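Please describe our next protein:
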Amino acid sequence: MSKQVLVTGAGGLIGSHLVRKLKEDGCWVRGVDLKYPEFWETMADDFVIGDLRDQGLCKQIVDRRFDEVYQLAADMGGAGFVFTGEHDADIMHNSALINLNILEACWRRNVRRIFYSSSACMYPEYNQMDPDNPNCAEDSAYPAQPDSEYGWEKLFSERMYLAFHRNYNMDVRVARYHNIFGPYGSWKDGREKAPAAMCRKVAMAKDGDEIEIWGDGEQTRSFLYIDECLEGTLLLTRSDWTGPVNIGSDEMVSINQLADMVMEIAGRKLTKKHVEGPLGVRGRNSDNTLIEQKLGWRPSQPLLKGLEKTYEWIEKQVRAQ
């Protein structure tokens, strides 16, 4: 009999790709979100449109003892959404409520295995001030000092999942995602991440135009392509290890370098214009020492390969406007 799987947040970038991957693996999949995937058809066997802040809905969708639950739903977005301060209350309230409801519904149905997608945003700001030498090892999380309310909520929810693991013997798995990107995700709605935003800016520009970069562009990040994110997620979920663990690339680049890579892919020569904007921490990179030790895995695809696929898709969206 095929695995019965629930994916919450199935209308988003990671969730919609995960549903497709699980279907390819022969699973029966129920997806849940406020919306269907915007840019392609869901492959879920059953897709429920609903608000996971509603405890009653969560009880309805967890109507069986699923073999695996992937909790990806959150109120989130890129720097333009998370770091302005304008959405802090919604981010904390909505995401915490979703996690509280899903965990309780799964516990009441005796669902054992549940994956929770935390974020590298929960790491302390004081370890990420140097753009060349950020510290994002898993054991660096405490003393806690995330740079955003989004990060604080992720840290709280991590602890809640781990408490259910200890107290109720649930097979919880916790991953800290580092900037997942790829096609079929947000690219112009204010919630897009840096790779999608950069691809959009380059695709929309004419030769000789300026593209805007927030800050001086020397802030550093790493970006993980969606296919490798799914590989790491499934490996962790089906292992006998709880985590928390980083799932990200350790190919760190500055935002200026990211812009140059996208321009190279597009064959465009554009000028970078540095402007005021929300920035987040000065440097962040995935430390993959622990996941390699525990699961024998690390991402293998160069950033450029993922950017090529993402740019091709976003350029098509721009042309179709």
In short: The domain at 4-180+223-247 is CATH 3.40.50.720 (Rossmann fold). The longest helix spans residues 88-108. The CA atoms of residues 125 and 147 lie 5 Å apart. The chain has two domains: 4-180+223-247, 182-222+251-282+301-320.
